[in-house]
Amino acid sequence: MIFNRSILFGALGIGAVLLVFGAAKEARQMGNTQGYEPDQPINFSHKVHAGENKISCRYCHYGAERGRHAGIPPTQLCLNCHSEIKKDSPEIAKIKEALDNKDPIEWIRIHQLPDFSYFNHSQHVTAGVSCQQCHGPVESMTRMRQHAPLTMGWCLECHRAQGLAPPHDQRTMAGGDCNKCHY
Length: 183
Ligand code: HEC
Ligand code: HEC
Ligand code: HEC
Ligand code: HEC
Ligand code: HEC
Prior knowledge:
This protein is mainly α. The protein has a domain at 1-31. Helix content is 42%, strand content 0%. The chain contains 9 helices and no strands. The chain has helices at 2-12, 15-30, 46-52, 57-60, 75-82, 90-100, 121-125, 131-135, 152-161. Helix 1 runs antiparallel to helix 2 (15-30). The radius of gyration is 19 Å and the shape is elongated. Residues 1-31 have low confidence and may be disordered. The structure holds heme C (5 copies). One heme C binds next to helix 7, helix 8 and helix 9.
């Protein structure tokens, strides 16, 4: 819906304002956490790492092609670079401190489906769906935020487009095989 609206109003030249308005309204209406963008314990920037320095998503989120969770990288992995790079920065000092004290860094979780639903990264990543199709332009985010609504409707919209779920008007089979995504 946002997509169609933006094309329409984009053509009229007032797209940007209405797109922002529309997206905010949509997020509120759905009562979900789309747009959630919490402060993190370390000022970690995807723009710096994945954007400017072109570090591959999978270098840090190596779980994504292997299993259910993409995972957050262990603190030790940061030191592959930061034992040298910017080692005198106060933000980097927090990394060393966490390791010395054996305290895991308490990253605040952003994306989270309810317990009764099941999502597996490897099923998607190995089928060629890009991280950005679901997580948006991560390589330009200074602070991570939830890009997609992560609702059932959002899952099904893409599955329908791929021919993985029956079309919207076949209500008896609203989402295809429920057990694929529900326990
Ligand atoms: C240098 C390591 C590194 C690279 C490269 C990296 N990430 Fe991350 N990613 C992290 C860390 C650390 C966090 C937790 C802090 C935060 O949310 O910013 C994170 C968080 C995330 C989250 C949110 C997790 C949650 O809590 O829901 C997503 C989504 C994500 N990354 C996707 C990507 C994508 C897509 C790319 C490539 C474009 C990428 N990351 C590249 C280290 C990395
Ligand atoms: C088809 C959509 C989709 C794709 C493609 C996708 N993700 Fe996710 N991602 C999700 C959903 C949904 C969640 C929440 C999962 C949950 O709560 O179980 C999530 C959660 C995450 C998290 C939080 C930690 C975790 O593993 O649950 C990270 C980090 C992440 N994704 C990174 C990535 C990276 C990196 C890629 C590409 C290699 C990627 N994702 C591809 C939908 C996707
Ligand atoms: C593959 C190399 C690599 C890895 C792994 C890596 N970084 Fe970085 N990081 C960089 C580079 C390059 C910069 C930019 C340095 C510059 O601005 O000169 C950077 C910058 C930073 C900065 C900004 C520091 C400042 O004061 O400007 C922080 C904070 C940071 N990284 C945190 C992390 C954390 C946390 C991890 C682990 C989850 C991590 N990095 C993993 C390469 C890496
Ligand atoms: C492609 C994956 C997928 C399929 C197939 C699917 N669901 Fe869901 N469903 C989800 C996800 C993810 C959520 C949690 C997010 C949300 O509440 O929208 C959810 C939420 C729900 C909820 C919670 C109520 C709500 O709307 O908030 C119900 C009830 C539900 N699904 C029933 C079903 C039934 C019945 C089927 C089969 C006809 C089905 N689902 C098929 C992914 C799926
Ligand atoms: C951007 C598109 C896209 C989104 C969004 C998406 N999926 Fe998928 N999903 C796919 C593709 C493509 C496949 C097919 C993989 C294959 O062909 O092996 C797939 C496969 C699956 C499968 C394997 C079973 C099957 O139907 O073949 C499950 C389960 C699944 N997705 C759950 C989810 C859930 C749950 C969500 C939402 C939280 C979701 N997907 C969101 C594209 C998507």
